[in-house]
Amino acid sequence: MAILVIAEHDNSTLKGATLNAVTAASQMGADLHLLVAGAGCGAAAEAAAQVAGVAKVLVADNAAYEHQLAENMGKLVAELAKDYSHIVSPATTTGKNFMPRVAALLDVAQLSDITAVESENTFQRPIYAGNAIATVESMDAVKVITVRGTAFDAAAAEGGSAAVETVDAAHDAGISSFVGEEMAQSDRPELTAADVIISGGRGMGNGENFALLEKVADKLGAAVGASRAAVDAGFVPNDMQVGQTGKIVAPELYIAVGISGAIQHLAGMKDSKIIVAINKDEEAPIFSVADYGLVADLFEAVPELEQKI
Amino acid sequence: MKVLVTVKRVIDYNVKVRVKSDNTDVDLANVKMALNPFCEIAVEEAVRLKEAGTASEVVVVSIGPKTCQEQIRTALALGADRGIQIETEDMPESLNVAKLLAKVIDEEQPGLVIMGKQAIDSDNNQTGQMLAALTDMPQGTFASEVKIDGDKVNVTREVDGGLQTVALNMPAIVTTDLRLNEPRYASLPNIMKAKRKPLDVKTPADLGVELKAHTKLLKVTPPAERQAGIMVASVDELVDKLKNEAKVL
Ligand SMILES: Cc1cc2nc3c(=O)[nH]c(=O)nc-3n(C[C@H](O)[C@H](O)[C@H](O)COP(=O)(O)OP(=O)(O)OC[C@H]3O[C@@H](n4cnc5c(N)ncnc54)[C@H](O)[C@@H]3O)c2cc1C
Ligand SMILES: Nc1ncnc2c1ncn2[C@@H]1O[C@H](COP(=O)(O)O)[C@@H](O)[C@H]1O
């Protein structure tokens, strides 16, 4: 049976996390279909048809799916699921929101945030903030799975030529509605897609001081992240939080500045290729995962770093 | 309006768990257990609704072995009115938890259900959404603000790009994110008082739910260890290492 991957998109472009989910799905079986559910999402569907390895794109273009409300998405995907062995989505806040609804409507379990595919029914996923890796076998007929993007390479965005098919089902549960959103505007790369990330913690002292990190980020083409403490203190917005309960990242280079290295923060960044820590406390646990540690006052070290790179 | 809150007993968030040497599971023997931090935030939100006069009663439910009564008592000490324990084995699967909770909702008819977004042991982030599907209720997951407005609740959600607000018909299910509130500490008199608050014990059979295994845990292994790094003495040395050794600059 085929595998259905639910695309993450903003109606016009496909989000990068979709491509990682496609790679994970391709390890579960051969016949891959991508669902693009949105409103006025023709451009996203066209992009989906180009993804290498995708055989078919299903497009559900309806006002009910404009904001991908979980109540409506859950019903749509559960209805389509009967033709599939696996339903796969990126473990983004969108996927995490509607996929468990799909699983419950199908009376099956969900395997959250998988990091490896061992066979069509056996998967690995981190538990306890990544301090243990569980190997789990699904005994359900339909496997509902969300994928940790950093654990799988991105599929090629081009090179495919999938057939595009329209899905007419319009599920408007009528119990929820979109009111508004406040999206952070930034010219920098997205945290989960960046090759280089520089993150600040409570040690930054305030939001203005994040400008120090931004200057380094500008030079390196990096994204800027934060610890929970920095977000809670109101230094920076919530979408910058890296960690067990924030974003999971694994860039080539992660620079942690004024971050102590709590378990929950490490859970979000310890799979980065090279980790640099700058902290004035030589005992800070962040040094235990750092490839290069520098004990220094960040207010001196970061401007100097910016000068010298 | 009645508010139902779910609480899970989990490892204390400060404890770094270890994998058992036979790789069957993690070792929880003699490990400090606590109320899941997100559930604590859920209890706090419900208690605040009661203090504001919006909620009339706060009922807490936990599903697991008898030990989880400890976390129900904690929630009662924080201001919840009564507790329900549903007796099961340790770590019941999310779908089973959701099915049991759906029956509790049938019996209790709450106007609002507040849960944690994630249990910090399984890191599943799914039970609330599953319960919402089973009860056909709308959901406001990863909430950083909850505002009741007549028969609707407006929930501001922490999403990848920022914040999103949705309006939900009640009854609805809300799952908490970290910034929804800052939970209070239980006072000693409230801890004493909590011991006398009602706590019902039920079994899945009482609720007419048959638990089913959907997954099998084959093994649990430690994550890949990182190679030990080095300390550098200066920014110059750091830049040199990044350029010439790690080759990431
Ligand atoms: C359920 C739950 C989920 C959580 N999820 C997350 C999560 O997803 N992500 C996350 O990050 N946290 C998370 N946390 C919080 C986590 O436990 C820590 O509290 C948090 O990561 C600490 O942030 P911090 O390192 O910035 O602050 P602190 O621990 O206060 O560390 C600040 C550091 O800055 C250093 N410093 C101060 N001034 C300077 C200076 N001038 N120069 C150099 N160094 C300086 C200090 O030496 C210190 O090490 C979670 C907690 C819970 C309970
Ligand atoms: N055994 C349980 N008893 C009570 N509540 C639970 C249980 N398991 C999960 N929950 C609730 O569901 C939330 C999300 O859990 P999870 O989906 O396992 O990450 C938790 O924060 C709890 O509020």
Q: Which descriptors would you attach to this protein?
A:
heterodimer; A: 309 residues; alpha/beta; Rossmann fold; 2 domains; seven-stranded parallel beta sheet; five-stranded parallel beta sheet; 8 helices; 16 strands; elongated; B: 249 residues; nine-stranded mixed beta sheet; two-stranded antiparallel sheet; 6 helices; globular; binds flavin-adenine dinucleotide; binds adenosine monophosphate
Can you tell me about this structure?
The complex is a heterodimer of chains A (309) and B (249). Chain A is α/β, with parallel strands linked by helices and 309 residues long. Chain A folds into two domains: 2-166, Rossmann fold; 191-308, Rossmann fold. Chain A has eight helices and 16 strands. In chain A, the strands form three sheets. A seven-stranded parallel sheet of chain A has the order 5-9-4-1-2-3-10, with helices on both faces. In chain A, strand 2 (32-38), helix 2 and strand 3 (54-61) form a beta-alpha-beta unit. The longest helix of chain A is centred in the N-terminal third of the chain and has 14 residues, at 93-106. Chain B is α/β, with parallel strands linked by helices. Chain B has helices at 37-51, 69-77, 94-108, 127-135, 188-194, 235-245, and strands at residues 2-6, 9-11, 33-35, 57-64, 82-87, 112-116, 139-149, 152-159, 162-169, 172-176, 199-202, 215-221, 230-232. In chain B, the strands form two sheets. A nine-stranded mixed sheet of chain B has the order 9-8-7-10-6-1-4-5-11, with helices on both faces. Chain B has a two-stranded antiparallel ribbon with strand order 2-3. The mean pLDDT of chain B is 97. Classes of the chains: A alpha/beta (309), B alpha/beta (249). The interface between A and B is large, with 89 and 81 residues. The complex binds flavin-adenine dinucleotide and adenosine monophosphate. Flavin-adenine dinucleotide sits between chains A (201-203, 227-230, 241-246, 258-260, 262, 264-265, 268, 279-281, 284, 297-299) and B (13, 37, 120, 178).
